[in-house]
Amino acid sequence: MIDIHSHILPGIDDGAKDLNESLALLKIAQSDGITHMVATPHIHIGRFNNSLSLLQSNIENLKKEANAAGINIKLAVAAEVRLDIELMSLIMNNKLPFIGKINNTNYLLLELPHSHVPQGVDQFIKWLFKNNIKPIIPHPERNRDIQANPYYIERLKQLGCEFQLTASSIQGEWGEQAQIISTNMLKKGWVSYVASDAHSVKRRPPILSKAKQTVRDLIGPAEAHALFVANPVKLTEALFSD
Ligand SMILES: [Fe+2]
Description:
This protein is α/β, with parallel strands linked by helices. The chain has one domain (2-241): Metal-dependent hydrolases (TIM Barrel, Alpha-Beta Barrel), CATH 3.20.20. Helices cover 45% and strands 17% of the residues. Strands 3, 5, 6, 7, 8, 9 and 10 form a seven-stranded mixed β-sheet that branches. α1 (19-31) links the parallel β1 and β2. The chain is globular, with a radius of gyration of 17 Å. The two termini are 19 Å apart. Residues 5, 7, 80, 138, 197 line the site of fe (ii) ion.
C-alpha cells in the first residue's frame, strides 16, 4: 500500500515531534504493509510556513535515518496545503509542492478549514484548473459544513475535485457522521484515495490495512486495490522516480 498523506517529518508541524517518533511511525507503517509513504507536512500560511527547501532537506535526512535504522519504506515529500488566497502567488512562483502529476496535470493536496467550506472556494478551484492544477481534497468527511450538508461534496465534485478519505474515519474513529459520509462516498464511487493522515504513534498512527479490509467488504477487492494501491501509484509515480 502507498500512504499519500502523513505528517511524519519531525518537528515541522503538528505531526511527529522528533526523529524518534518519525522512525516509530515508519516502523508501524512497515508492519502494516505500507511500502511507500508521502510525507505531507502542513503548509498553512501564518501557522506552518514550511518552505520547499526546508521540506526537501528534511525528507533527505529522514531517508538517511530510516535507512540507517533498517526501515524499508520508500519516502517522498509533498505538502497538505491549507486554502488561502496567498496560495495564488506561491503557485505562480513555483513555491508549492504538488503531490503528483498525471497526464501533465499537477495535483495539489488542498485542505479546507475543518469548520466550514469558505465562500469563494469555487472561484479558487476554477483558478487552479485554469493553471493546470487539480485539487485533491483530504478528509472531506471530517469537515463540519460537509457533515451538516453533504451537498458541499457534490459541489466540489462538480468542480472537478478528487477526494481522499482518512482510513480511521472509515473505521468510525472520527464519529458516526464522518463514518456515514465516508461509507456513502465509497458506495457512490466518489473516493480516489484513502490515506492515514498519520500524526503520532498514539493519536493517529499510519495504519491502512483495517480500512482496506472494510473497503473490500463494502465495495469489493478491485475497488479497494484502486484506492489503496493503484490510484496512489499512478498519482505519485513522478515523486518516487526522483
Ligand atoms: Fe493531514
